[in-house]
Sequence to fold (348 residues):
Amino acid sequence: MTSIKCVTTLIALAFLATSARAEVSESPDPLFQANDPLRVYLSGPFSTLIKERSKEDYLPGTISYENDDGTPVPLDVQIRTRGHNRHQNCKYPPVLLNFKKKQTRGTIFEGQNKLKLVIPCKYSSRYEQHVLREYLTYRIFNAVTNLSFRARLLQVSFENIEKDKEPEVRYAFLIEHKKRLADRYGMEELKIERAKVKDIAPDRLNLTSVFQYLIGNTDFSPVAGPPGDNCCHNYVLFNREDTDLILPIPYDFDQSGFVDAPYASPAPQFKIRSVRTRLYRGRCANNAYMDQSLQRFKEKRPEIYALINEQEGLTDGTRKALTKYMDAFYKLINDPEDVERYLLDKCI
Fold:
């Protein structure tokens, strides 16, 4: 019996060592090193972009910002739409910015090529709150683990060159490209049709599963993509030389209860009425790592609450709603019976 316990302990320590190595990375690109909103001007033919909504054809545009001394720095970009749900249901679809890498040298966008830009679904203060909420999901996951996508908040002045009107100013954010994330950690993206749970680092997968539960997200799969697509749904899988296990990193959280977007709805098979209803979709094979994952979230609780309390642009109502949503999560994970009932027993 003692030898079995020793073997179990050694396996756990090996996984912890792998996890610790996974946290070590190079610094993010300059664009993602700061958390204050970057004020930028983005001009382009937005009427055509919104009307045609092409995911293949780029339109010419310009993005600019000011240096510390106030000098404007203009950069040429190509712009097209992207996404799925928001592409269909939003007046303003999310977009992809394609930079000229040579032109970015010496600028805050140095090293960038293609970047996802998340913008409000509609132009209103209400929809801006949902953008800030989703931006916070990335910041919260950054607090929990370094092995995560960075995001940079922007205040964008959108100038539609096809209309004679003042630019519209609203919050938006950029998401680190998966290739830049991979470079930081010495990883490579794993492009496969499906993944097996046993091949994914169990501690990392369990940690991300608890995070998805924290934000009330069910719109993901770390093992398969939507019908006709490659793996995986709102996860990117990476491999690295120092481990045979796949490293999973989630993204795209607009369908979560934390964001609570008006267009968000849970899939019928989950039998929940609202995205705000939390449903655990972690894997039973990883339940042994639940205590370890919950401890990480308990340790990061002050930092997570601070992110919500200090986030620029949130209304008092939004801040209170998010705090209340976090309170419910922490009340649950501090009750062993609730952990058993709503997490361990709900695994798949």
